[in-house]
Amino acid sequence: MAEYKVKDLSLSSKGKKRIEWAGTRMGVLAHLKKEFEKTKPFKGIRISASLHVTTETANLMIALKMGGAEVYLAPSNPLSTQDDVAASLVKDYGISVFAVKGESNESYYENIKEVSLKKPHIILDDGGDLTNYVHSEGLYNDILGGTEETTTGVIRLRAMEKDGVLKFPVIAVNDSHTKYLFDNRYGTGQSTLDGILRATNILVAGKTVVVAGYGWCGKGVVMRARGLGARVIVTEIDPIKALEAYMDGHTVMKMEEAAPLGDIFITVTGNRDVITLRHIKLMKDGAILANSGHFDVEIDVKGLYREAEEREEIRPSLERIKIYGKNVYLVAQGRLCNLGAAEGHPSEVMDMSFANQALSVKFLLENRENLENRVYTIPEEIDREIASLKLKTLGVKIDELTEEQKKYLSSYKEGT
Ligand code: NAI
Fold it and tell me: Is ligand 1 within 6 A of the CB of residue 293?
């Protein structure tokens, strides 16, 4: 019987239907499930994961279990757990889950501890909390390798590698083309707007939306905000990204200049102190603040709460905060708004991200002796194979290089 700490096991039937629905949109993972069921590549392997407990993660966990793994799941954010999914994983699929939506930070770290103590051979992480924990507690002796899902986690891992403190090889799933080009851009783009709309139900058309960060996530958020009719202002610290935003047709300025102009502010930088009290002082009455970067440090939420004259939850995932004599509205406590106020990315993009996760586990197990304690990206062939499989599930066929074309592309002599 699976071990668990979930909100309510009786939510399982709702969770199961939603997991199955997500599964129908995840063709690549469905293909891998069939293959894993036959070949059992994870037989005898213990896998501990810290991932957002969503319907898509459920399908990844099921795929790993079908491949023979013993799987333990903790969340990767206290607000992102879907309680019905957690219940169904335990009851219907026999997978151990330790996650409750809205739990305290202490309880969140208890869950990370719980899965760390299972002597995992492989860990799957999203943001680096599990990786940090096993390193700081010396719980890495059985670990053959790990994976990391997001930009912020990869930045942390590269810092560990640089300092020579990483204790096992890690695959930076985030850096696969079939991950960041789709998940970060189209996934975060759509789901961030989805979170803000579910929390506020506002009309976006005609509003001024200020997006901080024009990386892969920021580009997606801007694209979707524009599609809904917003005027977009971008803030950046990187001159190349700022220029790109400018030539893509957006207004680019400093946050200080944008603060009095914006109706909605969205941070997606992976950095801290992007919107501070200094900026909030300059904002209009009624401004809406949301973050989609990994940690809740992009907007100064602590400062907001500390200086608030009044504070109340007025809708699910939306707080009214009276500060400096006006009201500002904060979505999902400044945590990832797409996961806190909505359901995270659509299944179709998570299909590719999680195919990368599953194939990274297989790659780590097959190549352990050739890997050092460093951060790796998934081999190009696997990345391309995932893209080919995705195209196949979408019914899209593409041309193939002829022998003549291959020769032409690899030669420096053939000019005409
Ligand atoms: P990225 O590195 O491609 O882009 C981040 C951008 O923010 C860069 O262009 C950087 O120059 C800019 N930036 C940094 N500090 C800034 C500041 N103070 N003001 C304005 N811009 C600043 O990273 P990516 O992939 O777009 O990820 C961004 C964040 O979103 C990370 O924390 C990542 O982990 C997270 N993420 C969240 C997801 C979600 O589901 N909400 C999904 C994927 C990633």
Answer: yes
Whether ligand 1 lies within 6 angstroms of the CB of 216 is answered as yes
- Tens digits of per-residue pLDDT, 379-391? 999 999 999 999 9
For the Cβ of 195 lying below 6 angstroms from any atom of ligand 1, the answer is no
Indicate if the pLDDT at residue 209 is higher than 60. Answer: yes
Q: How far is the CA of 154 from the centre of ligand 1 (A)?
A: 12
pLDDT value of position 1: 73
pLDDT tens digit sequence for 233-254: 999 999 999 999 999 999 999 9
**What are the beta bridge partners of residue 392?**
none
Enter the pTM of the model.
0.94
Closest ligand 1 atom to Cα of 238 = 11
Q: Is the pLDDT of residue 415 over 70?
A: no
Q: By alpha-carbon position, which residue is closest to atom 18 of ligand 1?
A: 274
32: pLDDT strictly greater than 60: yes
Q: With cut-offs at 50, 70 and 90, classify the pLDDT of residue 397.
A: very high
> The tokens of 415 are what?
């000019």
Is residue 393 packed enough to be buried (19+ CB in 10 Å), middle (13-18) or exposed (0-12)? middle
User: Rounded to the nearest whole angstrom, what is the distance from the C-alpha of residue 385 to the centroid of ligand 1?
Assistant: 27
Q: Are strands 170-172 and 208-212 parallel, antiparallel or unpaired?
A: unpaired
Atom of ligand 1 nearest to the CA of 184: 43
Among the listed residues 374, 369, 360, the one whose alpha carbon sits nearest the alpha carbon of residue 122:
360
**Whether the CB of 347 sits within 6 Å of ligand 1:** no
Set out the domains of the chain in order of their start, with CATH numbers. 4-179+345-394 (3.40.50.1480), 186-340 (3.40.50.720)
Q: Is 188 touching ligand 1 by the criterion CB < 6 Å?
A: yes
CA atoms within 13 A on the CB side of 44: 2
Give yes or no for a contact between 17 and 47, defined as CB atoms under 8 angstroms apart: no
Protein residue whose Cα sits closest to atom 4 of ligand 1: 215
Structure-derived torsion over alpha carbons of residues 91, 88, 46, 37, reported in degrees to the nearest 10: 100
C-beta 54 within 6 A of ligand 1: no
Give the separation between CA 362 and CA 196, rounded to whole angstroms: 37
Instruction: Identify the CA nearest to 70 among candidates 33, 122, 26, 31.
Output: 122
pLDDT, tens only, 145-169: 999 999 999 999 999 999 999 999 9
